[in-house]
Design brief:
By secondary structure, the protein is mostly helical. It is built from 7 helices and no strands.
């Protein structure tokens, strides 16, 4: 009698994931994807740190219009993103779900108040803290444990928005 382990009855825990099953392959792809995103995030943090984009003094210089440094970094990022999107569109690259790449248009509301308000709140937080979300993680990773406080605040704010979103006038 030639039986394999698949022919034997499985417990609930064993039945959930078996080696070689599609579920296991999807979990492996997710782990690989997370590892790739983690490495890209570390690289992004290194670039932010080396370019001094995480420097509180550089950010204050920007908000006081005393230096072009940060505007140059953001402008270069804008140009690279715009060119990359054009190249991806012309090459007919699709998303992971197979959809064409597109940026949906912003809603045209009177005065576009929600975008203005969001930008003002983001800018105030950035100016008061001296760091926006990307540099907060880079600063934490570079040895400033106090950055855990604004990161916790940002996560709590994001969670609060997710909870309030259905009740907000969108």
């Amino acid at each position: 009698m030639n039986t394999t382990t698949r022919d034997l009855p499985l417990s609930d825990e064993q039945a959930v994931v078996q080696l070689g099953d599609p579920v296991d392959a999807a979990a492996g792809e997710r782990v690989a994807g997370l590892a790739l995103y983690f490495l890209l995030g570390v690289g992004f943090g290194l670039v932010l740190t080396k370019s001094e984009a995480v420097s509180w003094f550089r950010i204050q210089e920007m908000f006081r219009f005393q230096s072009f440094h940060m505007y140059g970094i953001m402008g270069a990022g804008f140009v690279v993103a715009a060119l990359s999107l054009q190249i991806l569109r012309r090459a007919n690259v699709r998303s992971f779900r197979g959809e064409p790449l597109r940026i949906p248009p912003k809603e045209r509301t009177p005065g576009m108040r929600r975008y203005w308000m969001g930008g003002i709140v983001f800018g105030l937080g950035w100016a008061l803290l001296g760091a926006c979300p990307g540099p907060m993680f880079a600063l934490l990773g570079s040895g400033l444990p106090i950055m855990a406080v604004p990161i916790a605040g940002a996560l709590a704010g994001t969670r609060a928005y997710a909870w309030l979103r259905p009740r907000l006038p969108h």
